[in-house]
Amino acid sequence: MKLSARNVLKGKVVSVEKGSTTAHVKIEIASGQVVTSAITNDSVDALGLKVGGEAYAVIKSSDVIIAVD
Questions:
Q1: CATH label of the domain that carries residue 53
Q2: Structural domain boundaries enclosing 57
Q3: Are 16 and 8 a contacting pair, CB within 8 Å?
Q4: In this structure, is residue 28 part of a structural domain?
Q5: Tell me: the pLDDT tens digits for 14-48?
Q6: SS3 of 4-30
Q7: Interval 55-65 mean pLDDT
Q8: 16-28 core/surface letters (b: 16 or more CB in 10 A; e: else)
């Protein structure tokens, strides 16, 4: 994975809460340190995000983007 963003934080998905169109995904990047991102439910499904899985929080400007290998 190559990105222009410099803030890429690897962690473990600890929560995926789907709403009607938007999901809140929480990634623990270190013990007790959690990053939360709001993404579409379609993105959750496309990325295969599951609690316990590994993912990256990609931070650029004011947005947190989720990525997987």
A1: 2.40.50.100
A2: 7-67
A3: no
A4: yes
A5: 999 999 999 999 999 999 999 999 999 999 999 99
A6: CCCEEEEEEEEEEEECCCEEEEEEEEE
A7: 83
A8: beeeeeebebbbb
